[in-house]
Amino acid sequence: MSGFQRYKKILDLFSEERSSWTVLEISKSLKTPSSTIYRIVREMVTAEFLESASGSYFRLGPAFIKFNRIIKFSDPLVRAGQPFLKKLANENPITSVNVLARLYGNNVMCVADYKSPSFKKNTSYQRGKLMPLIYGATSRAIIMQITGKRLEDLINLENFKSDEDKKNFLKDLKSDRKKGYCFTEGQVDKGLIGFAVSISNKKLGIEASLSSIFNLDDFLLEHEPIIYANLTTYGLLVEKYINEIFEDIQKYHHETNSIR
Amino acid sequence: MSGFQRYKKILDLFSEERSSWTVLEISKSLKTPSSTIYRIVREMVTAEFLESASGSYFRLGPAFIKFNRIIKFSDPLVRAGQPFLKKLANENPITSVNVLARLYGNNVMCVADYKSPSFKKNTSYQRGKLMPLIYGATSRAIIMQITGKRLEDLINLENFKSDEDKKNFLKDLKSDRKKGYCFTEGQVDKGLIGFAVSISNKKLGIEASLSSIFNLDDFLLEHEPIIYANLTTYGLLVEKYINEIFEDIQKYHHETNSIR
DNA sequence: GTAAAATTCTCATTTTATAAGAAATTCTAG
DNA sequence: CTAGAATTTCTTATAAAATGAGAATTTTAC
Question: Count of domains in chain A?
């Protein structure tokens, strides 16, 4: 355990299900002497990445809330896409959850979401949540823009039920790429269906998707063209705004650099 | 520069105004050789605390979104208070911004906010934003629950305009403590007024506040008792829920510990 | 008030980080 | 496609920092 990993391993213990740990628990879990963990935890408390709670428990610190905010207000994808999610929800013919998601390591992470107020069911798509790479339209619209060795590497890390499954997945990917959008049914949450389009910006290294999720029960075939049209329109709009934000950033850096 | 500080110093460069940096810029800014920064940045990219953007720029990584989510769904204060903010907004006699805030080092940080849809002005109170310790009702309701040496230490770090100012501040603090709530006018945002009550839980180490912010123009004296009653009621309710969450956590840890 | 638990401290030893420059890779403009 | 520039990684001896066992101290709980 060295470098940043030393700290990361501790942070990775914290989850929604288990959000507070004592030093002794951490020490056992990482098989590291408690005197060492005490020192590291103290450092992280100073930096506000951890904070002490009651008992002798520690939990994630407010630094995450602060940096999350900075991302929310400066990340080009979130900045460009967030404002459109509500509009998309309002224009969809039936009640929906609308999601911006992107690649995060070997998973897909939701970075912004808007649920119509009338949408009842809980979905797995909420900001900050990791999603499987190979299930759901949201994820598929992201990987369908990746090709070659990179795609191969990503796919090889996944556990397909069978070789048959893998073949089908790759075939679907191809046809979705041609169609320009994805559709899946119940792959992530039962009773829900998803439509998605790709969002990308090479210069900014953005590989993402915009998706709308509906209750299967609400859905009629006649809705499909409207859903598709909405996603396509807003998808392009988001890409356009990402570009504008990119140019702003460039201009800003140019200015700050020339001043120096 | 050693330990976690090594990493923290880099992260602290990133802000809403300046959200992407090249290695060379970081290197200059921290007066550290670029070969060192390259290594550190690479580590942080692997851990997803940074990510590479276009050009040779780096920005904050998705790890913050992930951990922020875990906090949002597990932090007792946020979990207990978040659901009441909207209710509070709806029961207030005039349009409002409603905020949960807590101590964060030597500042106050907003950890949850709900703005009535009809509230026009932008306020400084948004989740993740740091606020001054000595201005605004939101902050005052937090420090008014701190006493003795701890209070002294906190206050001594602040720059008061004059000794007179400091005296007045301490006097106001005393009288607010007696009244049980705070009121300030235009200390943070011009044209806005704030009311706040304390939220605390010793066992969980929570020193926080619940506040409602209004447009001065909308406000009539007859609103005051209603505002005060709402804040007090919801403040107590939030504290009650924090307590319940605390007991849940205790039970959970008791179970998981006895299993082992 | 006291025993147990939590936390900090000490220090010899091991491990890791540092930084200068070389080497390799990636980008860019023609 | 290619040369040159910019970016990034690698190599290395040396300096610096982390480790962990156990003692010492502080805090907590009853």
Answer: 2
